[in-house]
Design brief:
The structure is a single chain. By secondary structure, this protein is mainly beta. Helix content is 8%, strand content 39%. It is built from two helices and nine strands; from the N terminus they run E-E-E-H-E-E-E-E-E-E-H. It has helices at residues 43-49, 144-149, and strands at residues 7-16, 22-25, 32-35, 57-62, 76-80, 95-100, 103-113, 116-120, 130-141. Strands 1, 2, 3, 4 and 9 form a five-stranded antiparallel β-sheet that branches. A four-stranded antiparallel β-sheet has the order 5-8-7-6, with no helix packed on it. The longest helix is centred in the N-terminal third of the chain and has 7 residues, at 43-49. 14% of the residues are buried.
């Protein structure tokens, strides 16, 4: 069975940046399972996997536009430290959830200077080319429940948290 929309696809992957540093990888015991054609993974990788078969291995580079998007300077802002009430010891690298006009957004603290804290709402991989080594482990038709929920249900996932 080839990778196609509405299939559950299991992949083994390693993700590296331009320098060859490993940013993420699936564990050998638990490869990533996703619902193909439903936006569960970045668009560029989903497109590359379309039509592939079990056992196929590929090395692909995904441009930022087809990954986590281009870096957007408008998503970076400095706020007074007092706006981060209840968060002790704010340090660069911390991930926080901020309420924005568009709803909750994950932000990263990039700088703390005096009373000002710089928050970056870009995905940490925004603006970066992504280098994937991928092997297709399994392909199966999705269940009706998976299709209605828009994501994969694993063996232990019988309820929503």
């Amino acid at each position: 069975m080839a990778v196609a929309p509405d299939c559950v696809v299991t992949i083994h992957y390693t993700l590296k940046d331009d320098a060859g540093t490993v940013l993420d990888r699936s564990s050998p015991e638990e490869p990533l399972a996703y619902l193909h054609g439903h936006g569960n993974i970045i668009p560029g990788l989903e497109k590359e996997l379309d039509g592939k078969n079990v056992g196929d291995a590929l090395t692909v580079t995904i441009a930022p536009a087809d990954g986590y998007g281009e870096y957007d300077n408008r998503l970076v802002q400095s706020v007074p430290r007092r706006t981060l009430r209840g968060i002790k010891d704010v340090k660069p690298g911390m991930r926080l959830h901020a309420q924005t006009a568009e709803g909750a957004r994950a932000v990263t603290v990039t700088k703390v200077l005096g009373d000002m804290v710089t928050l970056d709402g870009n995905h940490p991989l925004a603006g970066k080319s992504l280098h994937f080594d991928v092997r297709v482990g399994d392909v199966r038709p999705a269940t009706e429940e998976e299709l209605s929920h828009g994501h994969v249900h694993g063996p232990s996932d019988h309820h929503h948290h």
